[in-house]
Specification:
Blueprint lengths: L8 E5 L5 E6 H10 L3 E6 L6 E5 L1 H18 L5 E6 L5 H16 L3 E7 L8 H14 L4 E10 L2 E8 L3 H17 L8
Parallel strand pairs: 1-4, 5-6
Antiparallel strand pairs: 1-2, 3-4, 6-8, 7-8
Length: about 190
């Protein structure tokens, strides 16, 4: 029991949420002891303060489980990075573009970096055109969040997805469930 009691009475709430009413602090402590529960102050600023009869250990455990569940369902935004050179081969460009498409479909942001070396630094328009071409190629999946900027030897642009990470996750799970429910059919001629 708390030896330093400051308030003479409290508004008491029972273990099932029912209103008991305004009772003296000693009566509230006695009720808690009889019910083998804890007297927990839930609203200290109210006049009189509101206290509830509850199993505090169970309450702490349940709130920790709720917080853990909320963290588990939380979508974390990840920034993936793709690096290109200004004089990229068409096939290499298609491969890199495929990675960007995959990242955007998964709901991740993509940081596209073009690295300039030597004399390429005097031709930043090549990098700008390449970034613009990539943005145009993936515009149905994402939008340019941060336009192309020269940063020393590199030019950087960030592309954000149109759909959120949680939506992409749900869509992927639905597609997986649909594939799992159906048997693969023979290819048609």
């Amino acid at each position: 029991m708390n030896e330093r009691i400051r308030v003479p009475e409290v508004r008491l709430v029972g273990p099932n949420g029912e209103q008991v009413g305004i009772v003296s602090i000693h009566d509230a402590l006695k009720l808690a002891q009889e019910a083998d529960l804890d007297l927990v102050e839930v609203a200290a600023t109210a006049r009189p303060p509101v206290c509830k009869l509850m199993d505090y250990g169970k309450f702490k455990y349940e709130s920790a489980m709720k917080a853990r569940e909320a963290r588990k369902n939380q979508a974390h935004t990840i920034i993936k990075e793709i690096k290109l050179r200004p004089k990229i081969d068409p096939h290499d460009y298609e491969t890199k573009k495929g990675h960007v498409v995959r990242f955007l479909k998964a709901g991740d942001k993509v940081k596209v970096t073009i690295m300039f070396r030597g004399r390429e630094q005097s031709r930043p328009e090549l990098g700008f055109r390449l970034l613009q071409r990539l943005a145009d190629d993936v515009q149905e999946l994402g939008f340019v969040e941060s336009h192309a900027k020269q940063d020393g030897r590199n030019m950087i642009m960030v592309i954000g997805p149109h759909k959120k990470k949680a939506e992409a996750k749900a869509e992927k799970a639905a597609a997986k469930a649909q594939r799992g429910g159906e048997e693969p059919s023979a290819p048609e001629a």
